[in-house]
Design brief:
The structure is a homodimer of 256-residue chains. The first copy, chain A, has 256 residues and is α/β, with parallel strands linked by helices. The first copy, chain A, has two domains: 66 residues, Beta Barrel (Ribosomal Protein L25, Chain P); 172 residues, 3-Layer(aba) Sandwich (Alpha/beta knot), CATH 3.40.1280.10. Chain A contains seven helices and twelve strands. In chain A, β5 and β6 form a beta hairpin. The first copy, chain A, starts with a strand and ends in an 8-residue tail after the last helix. The interface between A and B is large, with 37 and 37 residues. Chains A, B: This is Ribosomal RNA small subunit methyltransferase E.
Chain lengths: 256, 256
C-alpha cells in the first residue's frame, strides 16, 4: 500500500487534505480513485490506513479508517555525523541510512574532507537530500522522516555532542590499542529513546587532532568489525548492527 | 600500506614475483622503490608484509619480511544469492558485500527480476564484477577475494542449497506469520566455518511460487529488521548483522 507523509497542518481530526507532489502522485502516477486505500503518516510518527474520498485537479481528500500500531522506528535515536565524502556518496548514506532507521544526519566538514561545502551549494543540496530522505522513509515504511541538519565543523560537532546520551566515532585503530571499547558493549548499555551520535570520518579518516579532540570530549572510539569499511559503508554497518542488537536479538541484552 | 593479491604460482618460498596490473600499480601509480614495504596476500587467505627488492619495466620482486596473524575474514562463509536488480545496483552489492565479508556471490535470475542476463552479456559483466570485488577486498584488507558464481535460476539455486549448512531467504512477510523464525536465532546456532546461503529477492520481492519452493527445500525465511529494505540494502544488513553477532558480540552466544 502506498505511504505518504502529510504535514500536521493538513490533518483535521480524521480528514486529511493532500496537496502538491503527493497529490500529483496519487492522481496522475498511481491513478487512484475514491474508495482506494493509502497509508498516511503524520510527521510525529503516527500512521493510519486511509480511504480516498475525493480527488480534484491538484488535491486529494482522505479519511482515516484505522490507526496503525506497528512501529518501524529504531528504539533509540541514532544521528549519523558523516564526514563529507567525495562525489555523491553522501546520497547513498542518506538513502540507505534512512532505510536502516537513522534519526538524523549531520554533514560533517572534516579536516580531511576533499569536498568543501559553501552556503550557496548547500541550500540546493539540502533540497535534493530532503527528497531522497523523504522517499526512502516512505519506501521503507518508516513513521518519520530523518532530519538533515546544517553542516558542522569539528568544534560545532563537539558542541552538538553535549546533547546526546552517547557519542561515538568510528576508528579502526581502536582495536589495536589498550583502551579498546567494543561497539557492542556501548550498545548493550543504551536505554530506549536514548540519543546516540555516531561520527564517521571521510575517505582519509579522522586526523590525529580530530581524534584527540573527540576523545577529550567523551566521544568513544569504536571499531566497526575487523575489516576496513569505506566511509559510505560505515554508517550502514553501524545502523544495521544497532537494529540487529535491539530489534532482532530482542529485549535480552547480551553480556560480553 | 598497499595490499596486493598475488596468485600462488608467483610465490617461491619467501620470494614473490609481481606482474601485470599490480606491477603497473607499484611501478607507475605508487612509484615505489626498492626497500619500500607492501602487504602481499596469497589467495588462500595468508598475508605477509614484504619488502620490494627489485623493480623492472613490467615486474616487481618482493621478499617476505613478516607473516601477518590478523584474520579479517568472517568466522562463517556467507554466500549472497542476490535476485538480479535493476541497473548497476548489483555492483553496489558486490562492492559493499565484499567490504562486509561475503564469501561468494550468486547472481540469481528471480521470477520478478526485470533484468535478464544472457550468456554473452554475462561474460563481460563478470570481468567488470571481478575487478570490483578484487579492489574491494584489497581496500578492506581482506585475506581472500570472494568468488562470483555463474548466475542461477530457482531450481539451480535450490540444488546449490544442498551444499550449505544453513540456508535463508529474506522475507519481510515472515514476521507476520506464526512460524516466525528470527534471524538472530539462526545466527546463534552457526558454528565456525559453516557455509551459509542467504537469498535476497529483487525489487519485486520473491514470487509466491518461489517462497513455497524455497520453504519446501528447507530455506528458512527471516526478516531483516522491521523496516522494508531495498533489494541492494538487504545483503548489507545481513552481513553487518552477522559480523556484529560473531565478531563484535564475541564468543558468548546470546540466548533469546
Amino acid at each position: 500500500m502506498q505511504r505518504y507523509f502529510i504535514p500536521k497542518a493538513n490533518w483535521q481530526n480524521n480528514t486529511i487534505s493532500i496537496e502538491g507532489d503527493d497529490a500529483h502522485h496519487i492522481i496522475r502516477v498511481m491513478r487512484m480513485q475514491a474508495g482506494d486505500k493509502i497509508i498516511c503518516n503524520k510527521l510525529d510518527a503516527s500512521a493510519a490506513i486511509c480511504e480516498i474520498t475525493e480527488l480534484n485537479t491538484d488535491s486529494v481528500t482522505a479519511e482515516v479508517l484505522e490507526w496503525l500500531e506497528s512501529n518501524t522506528e529504531l528504539p533509540v535515536n541514532v544521528t549519523i555525523a558523516q564526514g563529507l565524502p567525495k562525489g555523491d556518496k553522501i546520497e547513498l548514506v542518506l538513502q540507505k541510512g534512512t532505510e536502516l532507521g537513522a534519526y538524523a544526519f549531520i554533514p560533517f566538514q572534516a579536516e580531511r574532507s576533499v569536498v568543501k561545502w559553501d552556503a550557496r551549494k548547500t541550500d540546493k543540496k539540502l533540497i535534493r537530500f530532503s527528497k531522497i530522505v523523504k522517499e526512502a522513509s516512505e519506501q521503507s515504511h518508516r513513521n518519520r522522516i530523518p532530519e538533515i541538519r546544517q553542516a558542522m565543523n569539528l568544534s560545532q560537532l563537539i558542541q552538538e555532542g553535549q546533547r546526546y546520551d552517547i557519542k561515538l566515532f568510528a576508528y579502526e585503530e581502536e582495536a589495536k590499542t589498550n583502551e579498546f571499547h567494543s561497539f557492542s558493549s556501548v550498545i548493550n548499555q543504551v536505554k530506549n529513546d536514548d540519543h546516540i551520535l555516531i561520527c564517521i570520518g571521510p575517505e582519509g579518516g579522522f586526523s590525529q587532532e580530530e581524534v584527540t579532540s573527540l576523545k577529550q570530549h567523551d566521544f568513544i572510539p569504536v571499531r566497526l568489525g575487523p575489516r576496513i569499511l569505506r566511509t559510505e559503508t560505515a554508517a550502514l554497518y553501524a545502523l544495521s548492527s544497532i537494529s540487529y542488537h535491539l530489534e532482532e536479538l530482542g529485549g535480552t541484552s547480551c553480556q560480553q
